Amino acid sequence: MKQFAIIGMGPRGLYALENLLIELSKANTHIKIHVFDATSSPGTGNVWDKSQPDSNWINITERALIGIKKRPKIVYNNVIIDGFPSYHEWCQFLQNSNEPDAFPARNKLGKYLNARYKSIEIALEKLESFKFIKAEVRNINLKDQKIEIVTNSSSWHYDDLLLTIGHQSTAPSDQLKEWQSHVVSHKSLALFEDAYPITQLKAIKNNTNSNIGIRGFGLAMIDVMRYLTINDFGNFKVIDQDTFETIYYKTKEQQLKLAPFSLDGLPLVPKPLNETIDTWYQPTTKELNFFKSEIEAVAQHTPEINSIDFLTDPIAKITSRVFIDLKEKGVSHSLSQAELTTIIINWLNDENYRHPLIQDTNISTYKLIQNYIEMALGTIPISLDYCIGQVWRHCQPTLYKAFSHAKVNNDSIEKVIALDERSKRYSYGPPIESMQQVLALVDADILTLDFVTDPDIELTTEGWALKNSNNKSITCSVMINSVLDAPKLLEVNTPLIKDLLQNELIQPVHSKLGIDTTADGYVITPEDKDDVPIAVLGRLAKGSVIGVDAILECFGPRIEDWAKAYVRQLKD
């Protein structure tokens, strides 16, 4: 009997296991399956861990989670695995298109994912050929064409391996290394090198007499901000249900000060209030088909290109049509669609491009957040960049499908990924309420926006002294790094990945990107090496595939393609 292992049982590993069982049942084939995962709630991964606090919110609308479909009943090796409802069926989701979109706590989706996994494990308990191993994998070796998996206490051997391990830590930047050395010699200071698990911040949660620096101004910063301020000393209250305008009320006196910062200081852009407003930015089916064909025509057939016009041109054409159709809802103009298309392309190619239709980012950060909130509410004219960001979000699933495993050169792959990452300030934006909470904390004199844009940082005996361009300063005794490491394979510092690289069992698609894989998810090995029976799905394959961070991509066709390919080769 063939022996197969999955390392990592987050959402992607869960869907891979489901599709593996579906394909095996169709082929009437049985194998030994072992699942390795170190977490206490398999199916969730760290991002959706069901034990995390309610202050960690989903940043995708609950409405959009319609993409997590139900699982059919599976009959595998004479065992019946009952079907499992879709996410919407499970949580009995109902929403009027004019009601504000819901963004629940991440642990809610975690409970669903864990229950979905447990329903498989319970059904397969009676089979000796299935086993869940709660352990961290330390090493993977190839011996006589067999995969050896090593944990702290044991080792196993398999014919094939699937890696779905998600985010991995990378070597710290020079800045973080300097900070690490500083706190070693100054014991009164505290440095949190990662924002998650957020419960590690419990030690400082009620220390409301301190200045806390937060490196990063994105989604993780908002989780940190919420966790630290929903405490015995105060909480948020929505005072206008139509706009989510929020106040922060103090139940006890506190002197807490949060100082977030990033290189550009630009805030996240909230998603539209509800489905009705969101449809303003929805491309037509014809436009999405045009977008897909334009990308595929180049990405799948043209290795040597010098630009990413094949991406920026079609999305600019779609966005210009959408912006014209906004009419009085958008910033007033008298430009033709062709003229708008040129402006959009200029902005996509240069993030510093300025135009009257594009939101001026040189205003105060507070006012900038207010403007984007009102655009999301549909109460002020929409800027062209806001429109581009929302259209991009609607086009992302098509882009991810059409461009994955592109045959273009590595530089073009890197440029596409860089532009998609830049878009995420808009397309992966938080709910309106999150940004209203940022403003509420500024109003309550708890969060300061004075240092958001690349402050000078001096290390002192008192901590991190931040200074802005106006010579205003603040010294923080605690620093939290909320910047998520990019999946640069050559910089990953977890023992498992370093071991795979050292043994030349994997190689990057580009020095700045992830593992090179085939369309079926299998690792592409160096030319002088034999193929290895390892498949990789998810974040570590970034570059071969894009869009790996989206939850809906964990339940997508890439996983289905891998399962079909694996079972097909079993029968060959």
TrEMBL record:
It holds the Pfam family NAD_binding_9. Residues 5-168 form the FAD-dependent urate hydroxylase HpyO/Asp monooxygenase CreE-like FAD/NAD(P)-binding domain. SUPFAM superfamilies: FAD/NAD(P)-binding domain. InterPro entries: FAD/NAD-bd_sf, HpyO/CreE_NAD-binding, L-asp_N-monooxygenase_NS-form. PANTHER family: BLR0577 PROTEIN. This is FAD-dependent urate hydroxylase HpyO/Asp monooxygenase CreE-like FAD/NAD(P)-binding domain-containing protein.
